[in-house]
Amino acid sequence: MAKIIPENKARQGRWGWHGFRILIAALLLVFAAWGIAEIYGVLIKAPTSDEQHVPTPNTNQQAPAG
Asked: pTM (2 decimals)?
C-alpha cells in the first residue's frame, strides 16, 4: 500500500552542506576565471617594449618665403 504524503511535506531532498560547498566552489572558480581574464586583458592592451613610438612630422608648418 502506497503512503499518502501531504504536498507541503513532500520534498526531494535537502541542500545541506554538500550543495553549499558546491555553490561556494563554483563561486571561487568564477572569481578565478574573472581574475585571469582581467590579467589577460591588461597584458594584451599594454604596449610591449619592442614597439617604439615614432613621431610623425608636423605638416602644418609653412616653408620660409624667400
From this structure: 0.49
Q: What is the average per-residue pLDDT within 26-30?
A: 98
| 38, three cell numbers | 582581467
Q: Is the C-alpha dihedral spanning 5, 9, 15, 18 positive or negative? A: negative
What is the distance between the alpha carbons of residues 36 and 17, in angstroms, rounded to a whole number? 29
Q: How far apart are CA 19 and CA 61, in angstroms?
A: 72
Q: Quote the CA–CA distance of 63 and 66 in Å, as a whole number.
A: 9
Cα atoms found within 13 Å of the Cα of residue 36, Cβ hemisphere only: 6
